[in-house]
Amino acid sequence: MKRYFGVILSFFKQLKISNLLKSLRARFFIIVFLTGLFSCIIMHILILQSYEDRAVNVNSKGVQTQLRILANHLITNEYFTNTSSEVVNAELDMLTTIYDGRVMVINNELKVIKDTYNINEGKTIISEEVVNCLKKGSKGAVSKYNHDDGYIELVTPIIQAPIIQEGDISDKNEPTEVVRGVILTSVSTDSIEATLEILSRRAMTIEVIIVLVIFVYAAVVSATLLQPFDRITAAINDVKAGYTDEPIIGPNFLETEQIIKAFNALLKRMKVLDDSRQEFVSNVSHELKTPITSMKVLADSLLAQENVPNEVYKDFMVDIVSEIDREDKIINDLLSLVKMDKTSADLNITSVDVVELVEIVCKRLRPIAVKHNIELTLESKRAVTAEIDEVKISLVVMNLVENAIKYNKDKGQVKVEVDADQQFFVVKVMDTGMGIPKESLDHIYERFYRVEKSRSRQIGGTGLGLAIVRNAILMHRGTIDVDSEVDKGTTFTVKIPLIYTNQK
């Protein structure tokens, strides 16, 4: 129990007034507490109202029974002709005393022949209830409760038993009631009000206790049910502070499981990105350092020799220039990749003839294909116009076709196809080269990844080309697929929407 009170106290210490409505714990507490409070109030009202209706109903029936007996005595003692009957008057006084009320006997001429308050005797009473009761007889009996003034008003007919004449054997008409008058009674409800007040005080005491219990219950329940979220928050804070990078584990609740799964997935993604960043930095350092190291070795070799012939000097300088060109290509590719990492807002979208664009790229690369003894062909199935960034898509086609040429076999073939449907245009680059092993297909778009590192460096590859291609395609909301078989060739399929839509 002490633990729960400790939880409650810590809950209110941590809770700031300014953040009251922002706290899920506070909202849950308020909802539970108000639900219990309103339930108590409604029960209080319903119970008291039910008792009041029941008490009034029972009291009315009891008084009505006494009044019917009194009405019979009025007829029996011929009270309408002689109001001095001590028996009847005694009954009237007793009824008035018992029910703390007032009784008036009214004849069928609406004249008051007896008033226990001795105020209206001899006066004429014109009342809708009295008139209806005189007309309708027993059907006109009325009991009406006046809550504001604290009394019950009853209208009771005084009916004389009908006299049936000899020989009247008609079954069609029942004997007609003879209404001699009406008893108009007012009964005090002070006893009911007093009982209601006592019940209300007791109910209020019980309600205060219940409200306190609900208050404590709401605080305990809100704190207990939201403890899993506190543990998850603490675990996330540990990850944020760098104390751990392990996936968090929490209670097996559906809601917390969803949060934990989402966070662990994010943590895994961040870990992959961090590993990728570290690997990228390492690769960049290595790739940039290698040409510099080569140039330094060549330069040191020249400096170490005396009277170097011009031919040797020239050969060394050619090698140094080659390393400089390699360094320049790596830097340019890195700059291109950085640009590709920016948002799609940096795209310069224009309406471009895709077939013409691919033809220009192939025309630029055809001398390289001839140099490598590769047959480069272009096939266009229809005219294609699309909304694209011409420079970036040119870079995509350039990288794919250049790779297909460089990583091909002697006397190999590279075929480029351009096609389109109603929504997308497709560029296929097919070669008859060495192919890509299946285990490498998932990594070819990673920065600095090479299937065969020795051959890639030999032919001048940096390992950034496909990363640049993929980023440019993603910026256009397109896709790239690869299908490859070792020693048979590779096919890259690029699919890009004809109409560019900037989805943020």
Question: What would your notes on this structure say?
Answer:
With 504 residues, the protein is α+β, with helices and mostly antiparallel strands. The chain has a domain at 346-497: Heat Shock Protein 90 (2-Layer Sandwich). It is 54% helix and 17% strand. The protein is built from twelve helices and twelve strands. Strands 2-1-5-4-3 form a five-stranded antiparallel β-sheet, sandwiched between helices. A hairpin with a 3-residue loop joins strand 11 and strand 12 (489-497). The two termini are 53 Å apart. The model is unreliable at 454-459 (pLDDT under 50).
Overall pLDDT: 81
Instruction: Quickly give the CATH architecture of one domain.
Output: 2-Layer Sandwich
Spatial arrangement of strands, main beta sheet: 2-1-5-4-3
Distance between the ends: 53 Å
Q: What does the largest sheet look like?
A: 5 strands, antiparallel
- Going by helix content, strand content and strand pairing, the class is alpha+beta
Order of helices and strands: HHHEEHEEEHHHHEHEEHEEHHEE
Q: What best-fitting shape do the alpha-carbon axes yield?
A: rod-shaped
GO molecular function: phosphoprotein phosphatase activity; phosphorelay sensor kinase activity
Organism: Butyrivibrio hungatei
Subcellular location: Membrane
Catalytic activity: ATP + protein L-histidine = ADP + protein N-phospho-L-histidine
Topology of helices and strands:
Elements: H1 2-14, H2 24-76, H3 86-99, E1 101-107, E2 112-115, H4 128-136, E3 142-146, E4 151-160, E5 178-188, H5 190-225, H6 227-241, H7 254-304, H8 310-340, E6 349-353, H9 354-371, E7 375-380, E8 385-389, H10 390-406, E9 413-420, E10 424-431, H11 453-458, H12 465-475, E11 479-485, E12 489-497
